[in-house]
Write a structure and sequence with these properties.
The C terminus is likely disordered. By secondary structure, this protein is an alpha+beta fold. A five-stranded antiparallel beta sheet has the order 6-5-9-8-7, sandwiched between helices. A five-stranded mixed beta sheet has the order 11-12-10-13-14, with helices on both faces. A four-stranded antiparallel beta sheet has the order 1-4-3-2. The chain folds into four domains: about 160 residues, 2-Layer Sandwich (Beta-Lactamase); about 110 residues, GAF domain (Beta-Lactamase, 2-Layer Sandwich); about 130 residues, Alpha-Beta Plaits (2-Layer Sandwich), CATH 3.30.70; about 90 residues, Arc Repressor Mutant, subunit A. It is built from 21 helices and 14 strands. α15 links the parallel β13 and β14. The protein starts with a helix and ends in an 11-residue tail after the last helix.
Length: about 550
Amino acid sequence: MIDDLISVAASSRTGDGFRSLQETTRVVSERVASALGYDRVVVRMLAVADRDANPDAGWSAIIEAGESGIVTAVSELRDREDHAALSASAGIEARAALFAPMIAHGRLLGMLGGFDKQPHEHSPAAVEQFSTAARLAAIALDVASTARRTAESEGSGRVRQEFDRLNEVQSALAALSLESGGDAVHAITELLASSLETSILVWDALGSKTRAYTGDIHFRSRISDLLGARDPAQLRALSPGATLDSATVYPIGRERTLGLLLLDGPTDGSAFTEGVIRYSVGLLAYDLESERADHAARNVSRPSILHALVTGRLSSRQANDVGTFVDATGQPLRIGFLSVDDAVTATAISHRLNFSARARGCLAAAAEKDGVLLMVEDADLPKLRTVLEGLLSFVTQGSWSLGVSEPFVELDGAKAALEQAHIALASAEPHQISFYDEIGPTAALLKYLPLGAVASFVDELLRPLIDYDQQRGGALVDTLGAYLRHKGSLRKAADELYVHSNTIQLRLARVSQLTGIDLHDLRQLGVLSLAFAWRTNGEARSPGPLDSQ
């Protein structure tokens, strides 16, 4: 599919020349429909003459809204008042559609419409693919228009030579825009520097920093210092082709300046150079805008979605709909609650978690006054514990404890999962992770205990044994654990610890002496068993206050 989409950018080319603008629109329509599987794809140019000649043929609020630069998805065209106009533009009885603006070097050329005969929802991936197709279509239409104008003034021979090079670089840039992973801004900068044989720097106007550069380090240092010292408002007012020291400047962005593309030295003014720069600026604008949109999504959308899920106020369908925005559908998940020192720390940790790579396992985080909500991908418990410990060591150096729910798949189960996370948190010591599915039947009791009560209860009962072991090199805690695991069997406990059963009896007598608990009284033994179970569940790999080692 990628090769088919890349071919859209070359729709203006023939074997030995260039197609007319009208012929290019036809080829674009055919190639996009073939690549993405739409029943019909239509290119609508926004030329005034075209609109005046066809006032009712597909002009609607959607097409008018193209100036916004936003892709519009319609799952059922019949629900819209402008259904007739939209169907007329399709030329078929369409039921679902996507509309994407085609923009070249800051100018809206028209709209690309993809139509299907059956109504359906559009996935985020389908919207992204169609948006990419519209960007590639804009290349082809811009090249066709520019080639025609250049041929009229300079002759077809030079046009062919210039645009052979231009088409080659544009195809490479188009391939970069479709590749996943890596730093797209840096990749575009490198290809542009190689094509124009000069040093290139991309300046992030909103962040007031160098975003990417390729070439002479002295150029980067000099221009970065110069840009950093300038008034940001003055930088945003620079026009295409302006000079700054030795650099030629091209603003990135259409409605607002997202950044600046700076080339070391003047340009040669050729159609090739100007075409590559225009297209590169368009791609850079898209990538910088995507970065800002992703920043907003991580800071605002992810916490909002997580809060919406754990409140339990969404239906099953609504929960699945919002879950798609954080890739949280169709896989086992867990909810965690991370207890931290204060609200300021919670906010900072939430921010870092939402910007951490998904490979770290956290899909969303949301700050609350006493901690951080987490939505994490499930794994077997030893692996998940390791992942979460690594994640927390990455985002905080302060005190924390974490309770984690059982796994769930249906997103309307997030509310119950949060309750489980709070229950598990009750048995977690500082710098320890407690999993609900390791607590066992005592989880129902934990539900009604205040957060600090569990730790105090465990410490009061088991501290004498822990102190004894640490001071005398004993193994009372291990012995009690083996005895409880084997349901009071002295022989099995002895086999596990590789000692004689008489040794087990002597150690248990010492346990009874230190704790004041009669191990032959089932009620008293049950209390001790409960404390040991909660302590075991709260243990982490790093030593805590109740660690026997």
